[in-house]
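In the design runs reported in the main text, the only information available to the sequence generator was the tokenized backbone. The following block is the verbatim input for one such run; it is reproduced so that readers can re-run the procedure and compare outputs position by position.
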């Protein structure tokens, strides 16, 4: 069988296309090229989401908020990308700073941030994630007018 070694194990097709896909996936996991590839993918998703939103507003996407009126900690995550894709970074930050921070963490992970995260003790990671989700929920409650400060 020709193609890229290990391609069958990873689900990458054989041949020239398989080689390109394999090299791209490897680059996306390591170094500055990985950051560029991840940011480019996020930028394309943001522009696509803003275009879809402009053409046909789907309304509230969060099932919890749609049924109860109470936002979840991740509410505003889609809005972050819609606002960035529309060229409004300030509104993106205000929609959900935690989702934005998470997206930045994923984008910068190939530079070593991912390794630093996994090097933390599981209790520390759980505490940080729990604190971020509680802070995000409070932010959403204030942002949507359900909690007055």
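Verbatim output:
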């Amino acid at each position: 069988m020709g193609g890229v070694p290990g391609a069958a194990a990873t689900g990458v097709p054989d041949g020239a296309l398989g080689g390109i896909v394999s090299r791209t996936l490897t680059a996306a996991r390591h170094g500055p090229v990985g950051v560029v590839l991840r940011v480019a993918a996020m930028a394309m998703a943001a522009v696509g989401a803003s275009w879809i939103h402009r053409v046909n507003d789907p309304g509230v996407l969060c099932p919890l908020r749609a049924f109860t009126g109470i936002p979840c900690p991740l509410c505003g995550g889609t809005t972050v990308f819609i606002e960035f894709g529309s060229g409004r970074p300030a509104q993106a930050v205000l929609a959900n700073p935690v989702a934005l921070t998470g997206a930045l963490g994923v984008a910068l992970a190939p530079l070593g941030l991912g390794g630093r995260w996994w090097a933390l003790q599981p209790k520390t990671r759980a505490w940080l994630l729990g604190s971020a989700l509680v802070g995000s929920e409070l932010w959403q409650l204030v942002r949507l007018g359900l909690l007055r400060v």
